[in-house]
Amino acid sequence: MNQVLILTRNVLAEQEIQRKLQALNYEVYCSSKIFETCSQQLDAREFFNLFQYVILSETICEGEVIELIPILKNYPVLIIRKVESNVTEADQQYLEFEQLNAIISSGDSVDELRECLYNLKKNRNLTEGTQQNSNVVQLSGKVSLIGSNYLQDTGRYTESNRRIIETLHRLSQTESKILSILIEAGNQIVTREEICHKIWKEDVTKSHLASLSSTVTRIKMKFEQANLEKIAIHTLWGKGYRINQNLLKHIQTDELYKSIVSNG
Q1: How many C-alpha atoms does 248 have within 13 Å on its Cβ side?
Q2: What pLDDT shows up at residue 84?
Q3: Whether the model pTM is above 0.90
Q4: Most C-beta atoms within 10 A of its C-beta, which of 107, 125, 236, 261?
């Protein structure tokens, strides 16, 4: 059984979400006391080790969320923000920079909650178990990248393109699919909903959007760690994503695709 902790200012406000989670066989602990003391008592923080998910209630204001997130990041928990209805721009930014793992609303159905929590756990397991040593990385249905060992045997690639391919080689399957969608779009903006639909082939849910935000952040970090474009993917609030045009130019130069892309 998975354990869920709900941090709130009013436990009565959490009765409905608690009922739904318990219907899904989650063990739910709802507390206002832990919320009030965790920022002051270090012993209280160890309590978080008992849970897989921590839900921050809509009764907790944004300033308090900002204080709580760094504390929760020290523990192996998935952080979920519960909102009354609409997702604010601040909430979306938390998702984008992986400060939150998901956002749910008080009106979400049992089905929506089930899929959200399942996908969060699944994505974490996939991330932890990602294999990065395969010789070929599938970028899309018709595009695959030859592994980095092959590149070391050739001298026809620029240093920038070599590092790009090394980075592409380290992307997970989902990360590669997202990047492929943005590459194909060129200088066009691709909406978050469109990307989600292309990846999961089903109606877009909050868990899909949360997973997309986290995955895009991981892509950005991998390119930045390779000393490539500091912002590999641009986020246009309320519109979607667009690939960095300098990065796109690098990928498309030096006959890179002709040399290492397999058109299956």
Answers
A1: 16
A2: 81
A3: no
A4: 261
